Structure prediction request, 504 residues.
Amino acid sequence: MIERRKWKAARAVAALGFITALLLSVSTARAQSLTGRWAVNGRTLENGEQDKAIVDLKQDGSRLTGTIQSLGWSTSVKGTVEGTHFELFGSDWNDKKPFFVGDLLNGEIQGMQWGNKISARPTTAADDFPKLPYIDPPALRKISYNGLAKTPPMGWNSWNLFAEKVDDQTVRTMADAMISSGMRDAGYIYVNIDDTWEGTRDAQGNLGTNHKFPDMKALADYVHSKGLKIGIYSSPGPRTCGAYPASYGHEEQDAKMFAAWGIDYLKYDWCSAGSIYKNEQLQPIYQRMGDALQSTGRPIVYSLCEYGMGNVEKWGADVGGNLWRTTDDIRDEWDSMMFNIHKQVPTAPFAGPGHWNDPDMLEIGNGHMTDDEYRTHMGLWALTASPLLAGNDIRTMSDVTKSILLNKDVIAIDQDSLGKQASPVKSGDLETWIKPLADGSVAVGVVNLSASPASATVSAKDLGLSKVKKARDLWSHQDVQFKNGAYSGTVPSHGILMLRVSAR
Ligand code: GAL
Prediction:
């Protein structure tokens, strides 16, 4: 079973509500064992189908272990029990908080998952998931480069803020805002619809849209008419992470349909493919859709979403990928953002024009980090040549958010044609990241990881430059002077000092 974090997907699932908790009296409770198989009836999806999950638990005294398999995702869990009360954590998730807290009362589990009420009952045979026929993966071959994404893709994606609430109107108004805010002209070209657009398959196997997207072709035409490009989402498994129908067994058919709609970008998310294939089979499975996309003849950016599994950086480009996830889902929190960018460090040698490492989409402007932390988020994504996919509400963003996302000096570092991914050269509380640029100059970022402001010194020697001709602070947009081969500046807590330094 694939062990992985499905924070955003699962939170969206929970947000729409598993069945309401039964009101049972605590006074009648007595300690029972949680060991066994539990069935969770899921929410009603936007296409009218029903989500569900099977939870296998083993209780050993006060310790719990087990697995969760929902239609779209699965994970190993661990937890603790005290009397009737218990808590569950993802076994290998980077999260200190339990995702589920609840009680076993009178043979039923009831509790809160990410703040939403759920309940579960012992399974019966009828709860088993249908077994789908296994389709052999294709033989490996190298797919030629599609010529796209010569610099890291830039745009907007619906997931981080809207999750299941995205619809046609949201996408249209977001496209309008990409223009009025200046995002399009700054290079943010792709408007990407993430999970939850899907309807059901008809008798011919054609996948329709659900009521939120009445006419995908018309929506694509609208987005194109604004000088923007449009992206969509699917999975190589039978279901997406949000439990919607996905491309398993329909890869070519779906790719043709995407092309016919005018889609320019596909994010292809592993999700339930993990219930059919092993991690070792990631490469041929991603190759299958890479082939299908190229067979359409339409230029479509191919974004692999496999949470950094399977050493994807080593083969992502061979399957036709233009970018691939190096990490699990980002959250709008400093620790999560820094965890993701640090996890990306070993992949640096594999980034380059046409094929990029992806530490997940931006959270800038979503409200749970400070402005300095968001500047660091933008700065580090730019230094590491990561895709810049805004995840906030472009229609209502504040001036500070605009000044971060639209910082042309920082965007130029991300979009530099040399395509090098910065690595940290100095660790400690002041972490220094250096990125060589196409014109021979060097971008440097010094991140202050400590809780107080600190003075940072950047020396020409650290940058590999014999002498400095020009240095520009990329947040104040002012030129600064190196004295005796060094420049010192104050960096706020969790902030970033960013310079572009040239010797010529
Ligand atoms: C996750 C993915 C997220 C989002 C979500 C949709 O697996 O990492 O970025 O696409 O699924 O269900």
Remarks:
- The CA atoms of residues 135 and 404 lie 46 Å apart.
- The first helix runs from residue 7 to 15.
- Residues 6, 8-9, 159, 194-195, 240-242, 269, 271, 305, 329 surround beta-D-galactopyranose (CB under 6 Å).
